[in-house]
Give the backbone structure.
Amino acid sequence: MPLHYFESMNNPVIRKYVSVDNRSVKVNGTGLLLNEQGADFGEFMKQIYHSCSISYLKFFKMDPQSKLGFVAAKILLQDDDRDRFEPEEKAIVLANSASSLNTDEKYFESINDIPSPAVFVYTLPNIVAGEICIHHNLKGENTFFIQEESDIQFMVSYLNILFNTTSTRKVIAGWVEVDLADNYRAFLMDVEKENGGESQGNFTVDFIHQIFKL
């Protein structure tokens, strides 16, 4: 059965979306924090951490990709009613094109000296999803796809399958990547099955294409 079979069976909505890159942090397309001084990745992550009043000491032990996804998810869910859905009804579906190569390379370099267990534990791309699940108590679907580029059509179809064939009612979905050249971007959406209350727009391919470019 083709993925697009499920697309018209419900009308999920995007409650909120967040993007983080080397220039800024944006919430629903509006700038929240600008990287005006051109800070490098590590420094900008610290700025976001403190500016958004995040308090989670394990953050400083994470690899770059996990830090990026963690701060994006923290901003995305900071006003979320954690008890609105059961943990098993909340899922996370992420993707990128570089897998965990940024951390893999650092671990490979450490092998020449003393291999670092602290780096090794992050040599899987889905570790960032695990960090987010632990912190926000998400116990539903946990999936990470590796794609050549962001495949919005696939993401929409896949989430519609989750909403229509499982108990999933809420999904944190999007793109989280730190590549080998230390370029980085996170784009996360809070997608809910029920079309009611305040939202930024419908969970459709066309709308996501619009906001992904902002």
Q: What stands out?
A: The first strand starts at residue 13 and ends at 21. The mean pLDDT is 87.
